[in-house]
Amino acid sequence: MVGHERVADNVFSFQSEVYAQVNAGVVAGPNWAVVIDTLAYPDETLAIRDFVEQELKVPVRYVINTHYHADHSWGNCFFPGALVISSVLTRELLKKRGRPSLEETRQQNPALFKQVRIVLPHLVFEKGTIGLRIGKKTLRLLSLPGHSPDGIGVLIEEDRVLFAGDVFMPLPYFVDGDIDQMARSLTKLLDMGLENIIQGHGGIVLRGEIDGAIYDNLAYLDKLREVVQEASKSQYPLDILESVDVESCGKSRVIMNGLAGELHKRNLISLYHQTFGEIPIGSEEVEEDYDEYED
Ligand SMILES: [Zn+2]
Q1: What is the Å distance from ligand 1's center to 284 Cα?
Q2: 245 C-alpha to center of ligand 1: Å?
Q3: How far is residue 111's CA from residue 101's CA, in Å, rounded to a whole number?
Q4: Among 72, 99, 100, which Cα is nearest to 86's?
Q5: Ligand 1 centroid vs 17 CA: distance in angstroms?
Q6: pLDDT digit string (tens) for 43-89?
Q7: What is the reported pTM?
Q8: Fewest 10 Å CB contacts: which of 80, 161, 165, 219?
């Protein structure tokens, strides 16, 4: 249900096999371990805990949340002995939106989320970076907003491995964030001399692929800006947005288990809204399709 990979000495990544290829990580020291993000479903998060306790034979002392979204933070409750660390903003957003969102999810799927409760971070940082020593390694937490306003990444300095959170995905997704912030965060990663990037979702990006993947994501963002400008000149901007598929913006529709097409559409509509402050209007025909599609 959850596969793991050894990324460097005592550094592991875990990928969900059931939910959108979401990733989490573990860094282990001689006496305790740090978990970076939890997974979407309880069983998968518990599998990470079992791995740390039974295979690595250390307890989890810290859990870091890269941002407040459910598939990265709702597993905090499965590490009752650990301190949870995040940005100030993650704590605020989880406090405000986490509980209502959990209530709603529980109504749709009571059995699956029965044991889940929202655990707010215990240690937060506001600006700059913070470091955490574990054995001979230094974990550096740095701000990487864009996918959401609160996003952080976790850099393992000695290994040059970055757990980037959702600011880095095979298809950039900024509906809860900001496209310009995302572009700035991605650009920042170019000069960091990274060996590996563990994206929030999808496969590990290896050293030789990192710059290409960053430029590819930046090109996608630029293309969306163009499309939205073009659409704004039309009487029915939604018709234009609906007609520009993910492939024509340089990305494959099959990435992220086929979620790409859907995320792409939401990106375009959100960017239009963020740019012009209004919802794009469509012709009658397209509006009808769109309503159906929303259900
Ligand atoms: Zn997210």
Answers
A1: 33
A2: 22
A3: 16
A4: 72
A5: 17
A6: 999 999 999 999 999 999 999 999 999 999 999 999 999 999 999 99
A7: 0.95
A8: 80
Closest CA to 249 of 235, 233, 230, 234: 230
Centroid of ligand 1 to alpha carbon of 200 (angstroms): 7
What phi and psi, each to the nearest 5 degrees, are found at residue 231? -65, -35
Instruction: Compute, in angstroms, the gap from residue 69 CA to the centroid of ligand 1.
Output: 5
For residue 81, report the distance from its CA to the centre of ligand 1, in Å. Answer: 25
Query: How many angstroms separate the CA atoms of 278 and 246, rounded?
Result: 22
CA–centroid distance, residue 205 to ligand 1 (Å) = 18
Give the single-character DSSP code of 164: E
Average pLDDT for the chain = 94
| Alpha carbon of 165 to ligand 1 centroid (Å) | 7
173 alpha carbon – ligand 1 mean position (Å): 8
Ligand 1 center to residue 185 CA distance, Å?
15
pLDDT tens digits for range 143-194: 999 999 999 999 999 999 999 999 999 999 999 999 999 999 999 999 999 9
- Give residue-wise pLDDT tens across range 119-145: 999 999 998 899 999 999 999 999 999
Q: Which is nearest to 171 in space by CA: 207, 118, 224?
A: 224
The amino acid that residue 146 corresponds to is G
Contact 37, 12 (CB under 8 A): no
Q: Which domains does the chain show, CATH number per domain?
A: 2-218 (3.60.15.10), 223-294 (no CATH)
Average pLDDT over residues 7-19: 94
